[in-house]
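just leaving the lab so this will be short. what follows is a protein written twice so to speak, once as letters and once as structure tokens for the fold. can you read through it and tell me how you think this chain folds. anything you notice is useful, everything is just below:
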Amino acid sequence: MTDLNTRIERGAAFLDGREPGWWQRIDLETLDLDESCRCVLGQLATDLGDPERGVWPRVCDQFGVRATGWDNDDNGRARDIDLGFITDGEYVEELTAAWRALIEARRG
């Protein structure tokens, strides 16, 4: 398994190219990779409009990723895992902590 920090660094680089300054918009108090609306992508999608469509379709539109629960394509799930946006369920707390540490480091 790829190291969690390596995965989130890839995910952060992915977001840097699509949504500069994304890390400033994350609420660290509610950040939780086990909750779709509180994960990194879910929080970024909350202000994209059209709440009737739900979070994941807006995330997919904005960031060009397939998120678990929206697209069950195995390749999309593997990509999300590789970028640290989701986990296979075993390391949710560790992944959340790793994202929190990366964001805190960026905020200085």
The first helix runs from residue 4 to 18. The two ends are 29 Å apart (CA to CA). The helical segments are 4-18, 40-45, 55-63, 74-82, 92-107.
